[in-house]
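B., you asked whether I could sanity-check this one before it goes into the benchmark set. Here's the sequence:
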Amino acid sequence: MRQHRAGSKSSARGTIFALQRNVLESSQKHTTRPGFNITAWIVIAFLSLTAAWTTYHWTLRKGYALLDDVSVHQLDLYFAGLESELGRHEYLPGLLELDPDILTLLDGTEDKALAYRANRWLASLSVRAGSVAIFAIDTKGIVRASSNWYHPQNLIGQNLSNALYFTEALKEGRYRYFAPNVAHDAPEFYFSQSIRRNGAVIGVAVVKISLAPIESTWTASLSHPQGEKLLIVDENDMIVMSSVADWKYQITNLASVLLQEKPPHPDDAVADESSSEVIRPLGMVIDRALEHGNYLVRMPRANPSIATPSYMTQERFMVRTGWRVITLSDASDVVLNARYAALGTGAFTAFLGVLSLYVALHRRAIRSQLMARRALQRAHNQLERKVDERTAELHESNQELMREIAERKRTEQVLREAQDELVQASKLAVLGQMAAGITHEINQPLTALRSVSHNAKLSLQRGNHERIGNNLDAMVSLVERMSRITAQLKSFARKAPLTMGSVVLAQSVDNVLLLMNSRIRSEQAVVHVDLPAGLSVVCDNNRLEQVLINLFANALDAMKDCAHKTLSVTASRAGERVMVRIADSGPGISDDILPLLFEPFFSTKPAGEGLGLGLAISSGIVHEFGGTLRARNDNGAVFEFDLKVTEEAAHV
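And here's what the prediction gave me:
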């Protein structure tokens, strides 16, 4: 249908192109080339220059607006990421005020056991929070507990009374402090808060975090030479973090422009009062202001002969730290695109002027153009009509396809219900085979229950209350034993929908062995179970037990004529999957039967002993669990299938 529609469009377009060709040929025959007027050329040149100038400024403004829209979203992401990183650590100093061991240490108590518990708690808190260090300082400035207590260069016992985050926290109650780690060239941030007990300040809690991972992420994601540049500028207009490593700890001049001050010269140097280092200005040159408070700036280059790229600034203010998050977006393409647009518009305007002049001087072509327009309209109407016809056909085909899809879904539902019925029928067949054994299991407790009840009656007549209590306990134990047997039988016989969940593998195997205990003992088979303790898998418990019962029953049938009967159930884990294996000591499976083993209604048992559906149904159930049931020979028959380990067990 799409081909017919495309064909109709092609034929209509061919008609339109043929009519256009006829119009051009007719216009060439009926026109003459007049002399061009110099005034018309002057008008065309003026219009072209005006259109180019207007297009240049309009495209430039729109380009900056589009770059602003793109950059503001990126800036919001960087801003939110930095705010989130600082915000998720800001509450940590307050937690130290809740720990009684920390409060006792800050009061001046010298107890090694107490200090050991406090240090371990701080280390655990630091690991969970992802901080560099968490430590508690008493009012004298001595570190009493620290998360890095196990490190040779730990902070315990150091005097930090001159540290700014300590003195300010004592005065203000809370303080935030940024300090670069010169040794590792990593930005670090401190959160400090005074610790109070009964209203009195007894110390200061300090949390030190590293912003190096965020800065490394910025550097990796913005490593392209023409990509964005990200700056974090403090209240002193110094760059404390940047995606460009060479710009760190330099002075920008954006604050000077905002305050209408003279910006610093790139050759000027500023002395850092807190150190002996000399901070040089970045040398950012501001060309002009843009909309929305942005600026167009240029960065210096070592080679003056190379044109410096232009960047558009975007800025966000962080209330928590007083920092400004600034992005520099490369605006060179905006200017280049504006020039191309102006050049194209000027050329197009000149072309239109020449074409208009040409058409004005060839009035004879008007009639041909009108005729061609009517012909084109007829072709257009014909094309629309054919498109409508093809659309109607396509709509009918889509409706037919929807009906087929609905019918297929109904068929799939019927097949699934049939499979569930086959599973239930197979379970009932297995129940019939286990009926005799379960009857024997229940008959023994009933006989014992009758005897214990008679003894209890005699003890009641004789007034022997202690013996009556023992008999009643024995009766309760026997009733619980019968209850477990019938509960497993009822759970196995129940017809339930597929419910995926966490199932303990060993418990399912124990339930199946309990149901088949009578048959296993009657056939004198030895069962070896080697399963990881507490291993949980993702499946349906009822259907997993159905698969295990089918495989155990087939194994016992295969070992029917063997002198030594051994049934092994093992499981081995590989990553997030576990392989369950059921092996027997029987004669194995012949090679010609292996390919047909999981086909429905295929059975090697005598007539009347099976329908050949057990392995087919078991294979389907395992497939629903996301695994595969396979068979092979290894000193007997081995059936194995894989299941997914639950998330709780996968992370152990």
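One thing to flag: The longest helix spans residues 365-462. Otherwise nothing jumped out at me.
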